[in-house]
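Components:
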Amino acid sequence: MEGPSLVILHEEAKAFIGKKIIKVSGNTKTEKERLLNQKIIDIKTWGKHFLICFKDFMVRIHFLMYGSYRINEQKENPRLSLKFKNGEFNFYNCSIKFIEGDFYSQYDEETDVMSDRWNEKKAITALKKLPKKSLVCDALLNQNIFAGVGNIIKNEALWRIKMHPESFISSLKPKQLKQLAQEARTYSFDFYKWKKIYELKKHWVIYRKQICPRCNIKYTRKYCGNPARLTYFCSNCQVKYK
DNA sequence: TATAATGTTTGAAC
DNA sequence: AGTTCAAACATTAT
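Structure:
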């Protein structure tokens, strides 16, 4: 689940702010009992993190590859289930973690590509500080720089800016660094827009596709970067900066 | 039906 | 000591 999907979840989840948890269950190994009788004071997202905030701590939910949730409905084997006087909030196949402190002391909104406070210059500065041989495909997935960007956004954004995923960050000119940072955010918002109208896959140009619409030739499909992730690119129009 | 994957952490092995 | 790698988690679309 990538950043834009978390923003959509956040919109649905906001209704639980101010509500008290009256029953907790689920197969999480964390100390979930701690949540009983607690009042949700805020709900936040940062990148791929979904955060339910309480007075002195937060519950961080990460959906990884297959995580899901249900609001006011349920399915089998919740990892965590929160019940309220009116309604319930259920999470499945996700990673659950307690974080002490408040949101602002733990998270920097300026590195979240979906945030109003996204700071493009900060991302560019961070890119320049990466080790010499860092690849563009890895940089985009680096959650400390582009929180919320996942493999779909990575592939689509690189195709749009005609940049080869195995380009070296250190070989990019200032203009290209800017373009990279900009498109990470721009595509994320397109992702959000399309996901909301259930048209996300319809707009994929490269991810899980075969033919480059610009060049009319077959895409390359290769495991790139470290850790290796399946990457789609057009070897004709995506320039490799080396 | 088999395959591959919207992701990250952990810890063993080298 | 730093890196590399597999395992773990477990679902769903193609």
